[in-house]
């Protein structure tokens, strides 16, 4: 007899909710599932770190830091180049 596998989020699902996760807009249960996924999935964990950085950068941009406006396009390109599982 096999045990049912634990409920697992696909990377695609995690990417979809990552902004809600950062906004703490997920239910406690979903928040826990996403956190669990980050622990076992380095690519998504890296993606989360990039998202956080992107949010910090855009906050800095809104604050009028002109130097960062040259950094942001490179960051966007890095997102586009990312290959998700
Ligand atoms: Zn993942």
Please provide a written account of the structure.
66% of the residues lie in helices and 0% in strands. It is mainly alpha-helical and 85 residues long. It has one domain. Helix 2 (28-40) packs across helix 3 (42-62). The longest helix is centred in the middle third of the chain and has 21 residues, at 42-62. Zinc ion (ZN) is lined by residues 11, 14, 37, 41, 43-44.
Q: In brief, what are we looking at here?
A:
The chain has 85 residues and is mostly helical.
Write the layout of secondary structure elements.
Elements lengths: L10 H12 L5 H13 L1 H21 L9 H10 L4
Helix pairs in contact: 1-3, 2-3
Bound molecules: zinc ion.
Zinc ion binds next to helix 1 and helix 3.
Largest beta-sheet characterization:
none
Percent of sequence in beta strands = under 5%
**Form type:** globular
Low-pLDDT runs of 5+ residues are none
Q: Span between N and C termini?
A: 30 Å
Sequence of secondary-structure elements: HHHH
- Mean pLDDT across residues: 82
Number of strands: 0
Overall number of structural domains: 1
Give me the number of helical elements.
Answer: 4
Indicate the radius of gyration in whole angstroms.
16 Å
Which structural class best describes the helix and strand composition? mainly alpha
Task: Bin the helical content.
Answer: 55-70%
Bound compounds, each kind once, are: zinc ion
List keywords for this structure.
single chain; about 80 residues; mainly alpha; binds zinc ion
């Amino acid at each position: 007899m096999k045990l049912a596998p634990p409920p697992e989020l696909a990377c695609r699902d995690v990417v979809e909710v990552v902004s809600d996760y950062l906004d703490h807009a997920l239910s406690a249960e979903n928040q826990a599932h996403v956190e669990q996924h980050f622990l076992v999935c380095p690519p998504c964990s890296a993606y989360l770190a990039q998202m956080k950085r992107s949010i910090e950068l855009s906050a800095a941009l809104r604050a009028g830091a002109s130097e960062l406006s040259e950094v942001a396009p490179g960051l966007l390109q890095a997102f586009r180049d990312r290959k998700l599982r």
